From TrEMBL:
Organism name: Larkinella arboricola
Record-linked SUPFAM superfamilies: CheY-like
One Pfam assignment: Response_reg
4-aspartylphosphate modified-residue sites: D54
Record's protein name: Response regulator receiver domain-containing protein
Amino acid sequence: MSTKRVLIAEDSSVIQNLARKILEFQNYDITSVKNGEQVMQILEKEDFSIILLDINMPVMDGMECVRRVRALADKEKANIPVVAITGNAKNYTEEEFKTAGFNDVLVKPLNFDRLVEVVNQLTDK
């Protein structure tokens, strides 16, 4: 089985690095970007097993980004599991996250056991 690839879009390098360390320990291959626009650019060229999207990012936020991913012409890419990472879940209801196209939501401060659990679940095809 080839290594599962995780795309993390998060403008906080602290969270990015922590998530990277935790997931690399689980043998995931991690690519990090800083905003939704970079997610869209890299998705054109590469394949990922799952995307972790911070909601609050400069340039293009997570809500906009997940909608664009879901609208991609490439059906396989359009259906990649996408998980929201949010520091202010109160700004959105679970329903809004689902409607936007997220498979799950992780709330900051990140619970790393939960992070691993969610990523394992969603990439375990």
